[in-house]
Write a structure and sequence with these properties.
Low-confidence stretches: 205-214, 298-303, 388-396
Domain RCK C-terminal: 205-290, 298-382
Keywords: Membrane, Repeat, Transmembrane, Transmembrane helix, Transport
Mean pLDDT: 80
Largest sheet: 9 strands, antiparallel
Distance between the termini: 31 Å
Structural class: alpha+beta
Pfam family, one: CitMHS
InterPro entries: Cit_transptr-like_dom, DASS-Related_Transporters, Na/sul_symport_CS, RCK_C, RCK_C_sf
Transmembrane segments: 6-21, 28-50, 56-76, 97-121, 141-160, 172-193, 402-435, 447-466, 478-498, 530-551, 571-591
Number of strands: 9
Number of helices: 26
Shape: globular
Helix content: 55-70%
Radius of gyration: 25 Å
C-alpha cells in the first residue's frame, strides 16, 4: 500500500467509527471527510463537487418533491385506513395492509409512507387489542423490500444509477432491479407473515394494557407552597396525590436527593424528577400546588390553551437536536412547542428534562401549536408519529392527490418506454405540480430533505477518493483473492455481505457509494460484465433489517413499537439470510 492509500484507509475507518458512534449527523461527518480529502489533494475540486451535479442525486431531490405532493393530500393513508376498518384477525389484516404498502414503496419514498402510517396502524392496533409491536417492524421491512423493485423505490437505487451514468456506463432500466427485487419481496413477506410474526415481541399483549398508554416518560415537576403535602414525608404524597409515578430523584437548590426514600420530606421549591405514563403525568398536572415544567423557561400552564395540542415525536438519527440538551436547543423558540417528557426505550433517564441530551430514537412528548404537524412534518429533526388532532392538511384534496399519483405514473411510463430519462421525467413532473398549483414553492422546499442530499453528494467525493488513491483497487484484489476459489457465486456473496455490513453500521447510500468503486474494479480484474455486481450492491445496500440505525424506517418505528435493539436482530437476521441467499442465486443465474 502507498502512503496515500494508507491515509485514505485511515480516514475511511475514522469516518465509519464516527458514523457508528453517532458523533454528529451523518451528512456532516461525511462532508467533513470530503473536505479533508479535498484539502489534502487526494481529490480535485471537480471530483469533490461531482456529487452535487450527479443526475442520480438530483433525481432523488426531485422525487422528494413529487412524493411530498402525493402524500400531502392523504390518498394513501385514507386507503389504508379503509382497509384496516375491515378487521378480520391480525394476520389477515397484516396481509391486506402490507401487500399494497410494498407496492406503494416501489414508486414512492418509503420514509414518508412509514411516517404517515405508523400512527394510523398504532391507533388501529390499540383499538382492536393487538400489540403494535406485531405490525410496525413488518411495516418498515415491507417498505424496504418494496423499494428494491424499481429504480425509484429507494434513493440507493437512484444513487447507484447516477454513479453508473457518471462513470460513462449504462444505468439501470426502470424495472431492471425487479428481477431480484420482486422475488425477495415476495419471499420476505412470506417470512414476515409466518415465522417472522411469531418472532416479533408481544410488547402490549393484554387488551387492558393496550387500551392504556403504557409508555413511560421522564417528566419534571416543581412543588409550590400550596401543595398539601409540603413538609411531609413523600410516602404520603405518593399514596394520595402522586399515584402511579416513580420518583427518581429530587433537586433541592444545588443539591440532589437520590435515592428518594419513603421518609424524604417534600419542601416548597423541590423539583421532582419522575417517570410515568401519559395518563399519570396528566393526573399529576391536575394536582393543586404542582406544576409540570417543559425543559425551557415556560411551565406547562403557560403553554396550555386552545391553540395547543399534544404531539408525540421521534428524534431522527439525522437530527440537528442529537447530542444537545433540551434547553440548549431553544426548543420553545424554534418549534413553538414545549417538551413535557422524554421516553428512551428500556432505559430510565436520570436527568432534569432541560438537561436531557437527545439521542436518535428518543420519543418526546410535546405540547405544540395546532399547526405543528403541518409546519414540521417534513423536518429532518424528528419524525412526527402521533397527534391527538391531526391537521386537515393531511386530507386536503383527494382529487389533487390522485392527480399527482397519475402524473407520477405517466412519467414512469415515459421512462419505461425510453421517451425520457428519469431525471427529465421528474423535472417535468415537478414543474407541472407547481404550474397547476398542486404545491407551492415553499412547500416544495420543505419536502426536500437537504441533509440526505448533502450526505449523498458528499459520499460521491469519498468514493472518488477511494478510486483515485488506489484503495478501491487494492481492496478489490484482496476480496477477489478470498472469493475466487468459490467462483462467481462466492464473489457475489462476499460483495453482498460486505455492503450489507456497511449498511447496518452506517447508512444505505453511504454503503453503496463506498462499495461501488470496489465492485467496478472487481469486474475489471475478472474481465466480466459489471451489471451483476452493481445490482448486488444496490440490493444489499437497501436490505437493512438487523439494526434500527441502518435504515430510516427502522428507526421511525423503534420508539412507537416499544422495541428493544435485540428485537431487530432476532427478527432481522433470518430475513437477511433469506435475502442474501435468494439475491445471490438470482444474480448469479441472470448475470453470470
Amino acid at each position: 500500500m502507498t502512503g496515500e492509500m494508507i491515509f485514505v484507509a485511515m480516514m475511511i475507518v475514522l469516518m465509519l467509527l464516527a458514523l457508528l458512534f453517532e458523533m454528529a449527523r451523518a451528512d456532516l461527518i461525511v462532508s467533513f471527510f470530503l473536505i479533508v480529502f479535498l484539502l489534502t489533494g487526494v481529490i480535485s475540486t471537480g471530483q469533490a463537487l461531482s456529487g452535487f451535479s450527479n443526475e442520480g442525486m438530483l433525481t432523488v431531490m426531485l422525487l422528494f418533491v413529487v412524493a411530498g405532493a402525493i402524500q400531502k393530500h392523504g390518498i394513501i393513508e385514507n386507503y389504508i385506513d379503509r382497509l384496516l376498518k375491515q378487521h378480520k384477525g391480525p394476520k389477515r389484516s397484516m396481509m391486506k395492509l402490507l401487500a399494497p404498502v410494498a407496492l406503494f414503496s416501489g414508486f414512492l419514498n418509503n420514509t414518508p409512507i412509514v411516517v404517515t402510517l405508523t400512527p394510523i396502524i398504532k391507533r388501529w392496533c390499540q383499538k382492536n387489542g393487538i400489540a403494535p409491536s406485531k405490525f410496525l417492524i413488518p411495516l418498515s421491512y415491507v417498505t424496504i423490500l418494496g423499494g428494491t423493485m424499481t429504480l425509484i423505490g429507494t434513493s440507493t437505487n437512484l444513487v447507484v444509477h447516477g454513479l453508473l451514468i457518471q462513470s460513462g456506463r449504462e444505468g439501470f432500466g426502470f424495472f431492471q432491479l425487479a428481477i431480484v427485487g420482486v422475488p425477495i419481496a415476495l419471499l420476505g413477506m412470506a417470512y414476515i407473515f409466518t415465522l417472522g410474526y411469531r418472532l416479533l415481541p408481544d410488547t402490549l399483549g393484554a387488551k387492558e394494557q393496550i387500551r392504556e398508554e403504557v409508555k413511560e416518560f421522564l417528566a419534571e415537576a416543581v412543588i409550590e407552597k400550596s401543595f398539601e403535602h409540603v413538609e411531609r414525608p413523600i410516602i404520603e404524597a405518593v399514596d394520595v396525590s402522586l399515584k402511579g409515578i416513580y420518583i427518581i430523584e429530587i433537586l433541592r437548590g444545588d443539591s440532589r436527593i437520590f435515592p428518594v426514600t419513603p421518609t424524604t420530606v417534600i419542601r416548597e421549591g423541590d423539583h421532582l424528577l419522575f417517570s410515568g405514563t401519559l395518563n399519570t403525568i396528566a393526573a399529576v398536572q391536575k394536582q393543586k400546588g404542582i406544576t409540570l415544567i417543559t425543559g425551557t423557561d415556560q411551565t406547562l400552564d403557560s403553554l396550555m390553551n386552545d391553540e395547543f395540542e399534544l404531539i408525540e415525536a421521534v428524534i431522527s438519527h439525522q437530527s440537528g437536536l442529537v447530542s444537545k440538551t433540551v434547553k440548549s436547543t431553544r426548543f420553545r423558540t424554534r418549534y413553538n412547542a414545549g417538551v413535557i417528557a422524554v421516553h428512551r426505550n428500556n432505559e430510565r433517564i436520570k436527568s432534569r428534562v432541560g438537561d436531557i441530551i437527545f439521542k436518535p430514537g428518543d420519543t418526546v412528548l410535546l405540547l405544540a401549536a395546532k399547526d405543528f404537524l403541518e409546519q414540521h412534518m417534513h423536518e429532518n429533526d424528528f419524525y412526527v408519529v402521533t397527534s391527538l388532532a391531526p391537521p386537515e392538511a393531511l386530507h386536503q384534496n383527494s382529487a389533487k392527490g390522485w392527480g399527482g399519483l397519475g402524473l407520477l405514473l405517466t412519467m414512469i411510463a415515459s421512462v419505461t418506454l425510453g421517451i425520457l430519462s428519469m431525471f427529465e421525467a421528474m423535472l417535468i413532473a415537478v414543474v407541472l405540480l407547481l404550474l397547476f398549483k398542486f404545491i407551492d414553492a415553499d412547500e416544495m422546499l420543505s419536502y426536500i430533505q437537504f441533509n440526505v442530499i448533502l450526505l449523498i453528494a458528499s459520499a460521491f467525493g469519498v468514493g472518488a477518493a477511494m478510486t483515485e488513491s488506489g484503495l478501491a483497487q487494492f481492496l478489490a484484489e484482496h476480496m477477489l483473492a478470498i472469493a475466487m476459489p468459490l467462483g462467481a457465486i462466492g464473489i457475489i456473496a462476499i460483495l453482498y455481505v460486505m455492503t450489507n455490513i456497511f449498511t447496518e453500521l452506517i447508512t444505505n447510500t453511504g454503503a453503496a457509494v463506498l462499495m461501488f468503486p470496489i465492485a467496478i474494479e472487481m469486474a475489471t480484474q475478472m474481465d466480466i460484465g459489471y451489471m451483476g455486481l452493481i445490482v448486488t450492491i444496490a440490493i444489499a445496500a437497501s436490505a437493512s433489517f438487523i439494526t434500527p440505525i441502518g435504515y430510516q424506517t427502522n428507526l421511525i418505528v423503534y420508539g412507537p413499537g416499544g422495541y428493544k435493539f435485540t428485537d431487530y436482530i432476532k427478527v432481522g437476521v433470518p430475513l437477511s439470510l433469506l435475502t442474501i441467499i435468494t439475491a445471490t442465486l438470482i444474480i448469479h443465474a441472470v448475470w453470470f
